Amino acid sequence: MYCTMVYFIPLLDMDLLVAMMLGNQTKIDEFILLGFHEFYEFQTFLFLSFLVIYIVTMIGNFLIVMLVIFDEHLKVPMYFFLGSLSFLEICYSSNIFPRMLSALLTGNGTISFSNCFMQWYLCSSLVATECCLLCVMSYDRYLAICKPLHYLTTMNSQTCIHLTTSSWINGFAVFSILLILMLQQLTFCRSNEINHYFCDYFALLSISCSTTWLLEIMSYIVAAIFTLPPFLLTLLSYVYIIATVLKIPSATGRQKAFSTCSSHLVVVSIFYGSLMIAYMLPRTEKADVPKFSSFLYIALPPLANPFIYSLRNKEVKEALRNNIGRLILYKPTSPFRI
């Protein structure tokens, strides 16, 4: 039986959903994303910088996905999950950067009501999905290092499909509930200007005419459910991994064992570190601070992940050397070698 990459992205008719939920509650049918308006004289520089970041991010993650599909040596669970993560980063960056780049280039930050909520929904759901995927990848490394005799039987192709699919379904399903609550509770009757470069949750709440305390509480509950347990499980996995590695008698054995999970540990640190800087630090009176801090988790993890895995992983570097000039000539095969 062969595994194929399975991803769950719900298809929502946002215009219909918004119309059903809001009715005539709101007088605003579009928003204006102010973006980096305070740095108007640097718009060209910002556009070129963000364009380079986006292109490098897309190329790096696309190469990882292609290598997982094409290279026979990468058809194992660890790289199947890595391919899933890279595909997620492609979706995540493509949800934010194109519209931001368009606004910088044209000076027009207008976004429709439904598209704004769809952008927030995709962004939040993909972050939740990434938390789950990183936890799954940590569990995979835990089994490989701490339970090597049971690894092949436990982490089989069916298990990989279930874990990956569950990560995507759970990430999108829970924020569907929060999305419906937002559309039912929020009204917009004052300013339609959002001081952000994308439809951030708290930026939307800040311009609403409604009482938002219930939605704020709900958002913290959802965030706690989908960030804290995966983070703690990831942390627990690495506690066991480190304890197991330290018991290996030879220095060479310890180095080899730790090298198999060091890249993932760096990726986890960058992701959760940037997320905490963006949303867990005390809020300031300056409205621009959250906008700039959120750029860390918007841009840094998707940009850094391909380089971390390619620079610190011998198998990925070898696959890149062997296949970089031949990717378009090969037909894709199964993501697993059974």
UniProtKB/TrEMBL annotation:
Predominant localisation class: membrane
TM region positions: 6-24, 45-70, 76-97, 118-139, 159-182, 221-246, 258-280, 292-311
A UniProt-annotated Pfam family: 7tm_4
A GO term from the CC aspect: plasma membrane
InterPro entries in the cross-refs: GPCR_Rhodpsn, GPCR_Rhodpsn_7TM, Olfact_rcpt, Olfactory_GPCR
Record-level Gene Ontology MF annotations: G protein-coupled receptor activity; olfactory receptor activity
Start and end residues of each G-protein coupled receptors family 1 profile domain: 60-309
Membrane topology of this protein: Multi-pass membrane protein
Keywords: Cell membrane, G-protein coupled receptor, Glycoprotein, Membrane, Olfaction, Receptor, Sensory transduction, Transducer, Transmembrane, Transmembrane helix
Subcellular location: Cell membrane
PANTHER family hit by this protein: OLFACTORY RECEPTOR
Family under the similarity heading: Belongs to the G-protein coupled receptor 1 family.
Name this polypeptide is given: Olfactory receptor
